[in-house]
Amino acid sequence: MPGGTITLSTNRQMELIDITMEINKALRASGVGEGFCLVYNPHTTAGLTINEGADPDVQRDLIAALREMVPLDYPYRHAEGNSPAHVMTTLTGSSVTVFVENGSLKLGTWQKVFFCEFDGPRARKVHWRVMAG
Amino acid sequence: MPGGTITLSTNRQMELIDITMEINKALRASGVGEGFCLVYNPHTTAGLTINEGADPDVQRDLIAALREMVPLDYPYRHAEGNSPAHVMTTLTGSSVTVFVENGSLKLGTWQKVFFCEFDGPRARKVHWRVMAG
Amino acid sequence: MPGGTITLSTNRQMELIDITMEINKALRASGVGEGFCLVYNPHTTAGLTINEGADPDVQRDLIAALREMVPLDYPYRHAEGNSPAHVMTTLTGSSVTVFVENGSLKLGTWQKVFFCEFDGPRARKVHWRVMAG
After folding, report:
1. Closest among A96, C68, C13, A122 to B90, alpha carbons compared
2. Which of A9, A104, C59, C64 is deepest in the core (most CB within 10 A)?
3. What is the pLDDT of residue B133?
């Protein structure tokens, strides 16, 4: 099954990184024309989401809203101190699935695929596989 | 790959619309017996979710709870004023995947597939594709 | 398409149950080497998530955070009184998709697949199917 791994270096505790171009580049190199692309995040303090890529303020607002919604100062039991990042991981989810058409992700006009760092900065990986069909 | 697009006209700023029957009708017309159906929302201020369809109050309660959880009056930076809708999009997700069996979505007894409008009213689209297997 | 159903008995109103070993055991019995595994929850007051499995406190913190975020005492309209569970179902999602490699789920180092009970205790089911590729 065609696939690969993208490596990332995040720079902040929380940030969204647009990985659409890298996935599309890898997809084209794989030669798959049509299928389902599963983009998969193997980490438990980071997520993946599809949202607007045109205005970077949307990414900042997403982070701000998650920090408002998820209790940051709650008496969590997990000793590493990054429980809010684990919660955000469950809220955003570990993968996104997108159709491939003509060798590229078939996203909406304003959509981009974002890696969501919730406990950085760190070295991170994202895997992808395409089921041709 | 069998697939198509459903068009929707939403009527309120926020509402959930049951699209199960339309997808099942399109599935049957496509003649696919078994596979994975990816239902995909190409918008960034709308989502998709699977939840109870029997009591319409569940849909109203979901909207009420999202409006309680996501900050509505926060000093967001995105100038269009619809940042809460972008946040709700990330919380619900851009797609749902369901098995197809005997030509229909294999949902649980109470489950329906809902389009989630977070920034309407608008004209919207939902794409679907089936990977036969 | 190879697949099956896992049955669960939950013991509390809210709990996370690691189902990774059961799915991997069923996968190995099915003989599929490589593909996409869709793990699907047919219930509307329970979810599925992928998160850290090493420290059980992460599971407890996830439940605690959801109970902080989702309004529990809100004047919901759904008469069964379990609207918070329906909301949590939409937040976590009804399925997870994971690559299969060498006959097992290709999870990250710390990742496990969890069934999320939000309205227990109950008898529950989880379906899985693998699209070989």
Report:
1. A96
2. C59
3. 86
